[in-house]
Amino acid sequence: MATKGFMLYLVTAFTVAIFSTFIISGHNHYTHKYHIQSSNTLNTDEKTWPELEFSWRIVLATVIGFLGSAFGTVGGVGGGGIFVPMLTLVVGFDTKSAAALSKCMIMGASASSFWYNLRVPHPCREVPILDYDLALLFQPMLMLGITLGVALSVVFPYWLITVLIIILFLGTSSRSFFRGIEMWKEESILKKEMAKPRETFVNSRGELLLDTYEPLIPREEKTPMEIFTFNLRWKKLMLLVAVWAAFLVLQIIKNDLVVCSTWYWVLTVAQFPATLAVFGYECVKLYRESKKRRSLGNTESVCEATINWTVPNLIFCALCGVLGGTVGGLLGSGGGFILGPLLLEIGVIPQVASATATFVMMFSSSLSVVEFYLLKRFPIPYALYLMSVSILAGFWGQFFVRKLVAFLKRASLIVFILSAVIFASAITMGVIGIERSIKMIQNHEFMGFLQFCSSQ
What we know:
Layout: H1 2-27, H2 32-35, H3 56-75, H4 80-91, H5 95-117, H6 132-155, H7 158-193, H8 224-231, H9 234-255, H10 262-295, H11 311-331, H12 336-345, H13 350-374, H14 380-408, H15 412-442
């Protein structure tokens, strides 16, 4: 019921915001021909690259970047909503360059988090902590959504992008916060009931409570190398890399083509078969395994998600994956602002949700980094420095928070961190967006949708 209410909130708010664009654009249509280039701040080609030198700005950006990367990777959201405002307001980059550098930071933090998680055992099952099935389900749709988001960033007015981001982030942060409260209460019950090991206990929804910090059956201790090799599934990893490479090749070729030319649209459409092939393969696999287990009376989950893999649920996941990628393309993030909360919503425990979300973001962010590099969209010295900061932050953030979760036996801490990062991103992106939207209104700039081909 809560999920349906949340989706109704998003659909209603998005519909009202988009339709209001047509009303607003009707009042200032006469200014279109004079301000078409300045109406979308995200797409300006003016580069503002400050020099990399020691100053209070670099110190403050380092602190914010370190904390944003640490908490962002732990929550599984990356932190793009914090990095972009930091790079524009504190350091002084233009918005497009800030989005490119934000991707570099997300890639660095995600890669270090992935490396760290390969050495972490699953908290309660004899399976990898990275859920490769969920990664294969969401990664193709996420990358397809990023392509859509980049296109919409050209068409959508800046004020509308700001409104949609605020609506989405406030909704997901609130939903994650209440989810964290529910988990905190259940953990409190669990800690009390653990003194009665022979009794069976359930939560308010009638679901069996399990200890997500210690295995139900004592396991043999594994060496770090054994844990590493167990978590690393080469076949599924290579399939994910193949999807990433296919998107990368298509994007590189598209960059050399005239926008809206015949071959441009051919390559754009060519992204769909590869995406749907991998997504469809994983959907069929999850559906068949889930159906087979239900027919045998086996209630164990096919993967980490506790939902039944029915056709409506698979369609829902596909739409959420595309939505997450679209937000990533609009914002300059890795799409984790949707994927992180979504994994929790479908029943994935926080430790696995965090590890899997950052794993998927590693592919989506690295794809964007390569594209931005080919376009010479960010300065290399700044990128290397900020990536170094985020790599260290991603590793130590995972280390300290997971140690704290294991000590307190409170996985809900990860959910609260997720909610806090998304809420902070809503505030920072909202403040910047509102400020620039006011300037656009004062300058009588065009506030409606732009033509895709003529705005490139």
